[in-house]
Each structure stands twice: as structure tokens, then as C-alpha cells.
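Re-run with default settings, no changes from the original entry. Doing this only to confirm the output is reproducible before filing.
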Amino acid sequence: MPFYAKHAFGEADHHELLMGWMLKYGLLDERNEIETVITTPETNACVNLAYQLAIEQDRAKWLVTINCSIERCSNDFFKAVAPKMREIGAGDPYFDIHVEADEHHSIMGLEYIEPQDPESPRGRQLIAKALEGVSLWAAMLHSWIDVDCFPHFDLNGQLKNSIRKRVSILI
């Protein structure tokens, strides 16, 4: 899947950009402190979804889950975060680059997806996988700020659980 290799190549230095930002603002005192961070189960679940999809070798599932869902969520996140970070004096190319990169990644490879009837078994399977990506991405971000929240969606994209009530309490 050449679009995946291109996507991965585009992300190759992002961890170094983030590391530089964390060191600059004192989130880490030195580089090797990152080795003491305990990854949340939610983060592992989101990252491991990519491995699952790679093993399955289903291009359409990969694209709707990683590109259309997770990268789209990430793009929306960074479009909101990048200007706020600049506003509070903590802006960085790490945040700015994701506004453009994630937008590009969210549409990358879409020409490889065959149109599906959303009511067909394959259409429902792709919708479910895309919504799983959104759920895992959201749970991952929530875990970073110690919010126990995992959104569950029906196949129409509507929240099935009471996340709205919990989120409105937080706001």
C-alpha cells in the first residue's frame, strides 16, 4: 500500500518535534525521561488498531479507520490547539505542522475506496471500523487528561452511551 508508506514517511520526524517541544517547556528535563512514561491502555488500543489493520491487509478498512477517522479527528484537534498554543506562548511547529499534515492524511488514498451501500454488510463493516477509530482516538486523548470516557456509536454515528452527560459536566 504505497499511500501508507507515504503517510508513514510524512510522520517520520514528528516524534522529534514533540520531543523538542517537551524539552523546551520542561515537560521532560532530559530526553531519556520519556522511557519512564507508562503508556495508557487507551493509547495502546488506539495504536494497536493500526497493527490489527495492517495484519488484515484490508485497504478500505485501513483508509476509513486511520485516514478518514483518526487523522480527521487529529486534524480537528490540532486546528483548535495550534492557535491556542501560540496564544499562550507555547506554540511550536509540532502543532502547526499537524494542521496541514493531518488534513492531507485524512484524504490520502480515498481514491482506493470503492463506494459502498451503507446498508450492505461491507458498508456497515466499514462504518463500524471508522467509528471504532473515532472511539479509540477519543478514549486515548481522554486518558491523557485522566478523564474516563469512551464514546460508543451506533452505525449512524450517534452516541449510544451517556457521554454527552459526562462531557457536559466537565465543560
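The helical segments are 2-11, 14-24, 41-56, 59-87, 93-107, 121-144, 163-170. The two ends are 41 Å apart (CA to CA).
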